[in-house]
Specification:
single chain, 162 residues, alpha+beta, Immunoglobulin-like, 3 domains, four-stranded mixed sheet, extended
Length: 162
């Protein structure tokens, strides 16, 4: 019976030590550059652009998955983020030495607001922009036939405009 209590006491001691050291280990990781101290989640909308002011020492921008979001660096340390597809990816800003200066999680969400209508015909989905009149809208997740028809019309119109 004392063997059971002995093992339990050792487990409790190890757990207490881990809980005591956890804040110090997390802080040391941020200090030596294992993870930036200012990581947070930015929520952006698909097909929308957002601005982010960067620290002055930023030289390189990296987006983990360019199918989810795109980033364009502008003069004055302004970064333009555009949601390309639904999901989550990361954004890293590096200085000239390759040190991570800024890291953010980018979460790209679907369209918000009350200016669109989603119509379901069984499992087929169609999206319309209704501001003020309802017109077809290209939205990720729409049925393939509907999406490709709207995309073809939009492409043909853009080609004719050139």
């Amino acid at each position: 019976m004392s063997a059971v209590f002995g093992r339990r006491a050792k487990r409790c001691a190890v757990l207490a030590l881990a809980l005591f050291l956890a804040p110090f280990l997390a802080l040391s990781g941020a200090v030596i550059g294992l993870r930036p101290a200012n990581a947070e989640t930015l929520r952006i909308t698909v097909d929308q652009a957002s601005m982010l002011k960067l620290p002055p020492q930023v030289a390189t921008i990296v987006v983990g998955n360019p199918l989810v979001a795109d980033a364009s660096l502008q003069k004055g340390g302004v970064l333009i983020l555009t949601g390309k597809g639904y999901g989550t990816t990361n954004l890293m800003a590096l200085d000239r030495a390759g040190k991570v200066v800024l890291e953010k999680t980018l979460q790209v969400l679907g369209p918000t607001g009350r200016d669109f209508v989603v119509v379901y015909r069984g499992v087929e989905r169609e999206t319309y922009s209704c501001a003020p009149d309802c017109e077809r809208r290209l939205t990720l997740g729409d049925s393939p036939v509907y999406f490709s028809n709207v995309l073809a019309q939009s492409g043909a119109r853009n080609a004719a405009a050139k």
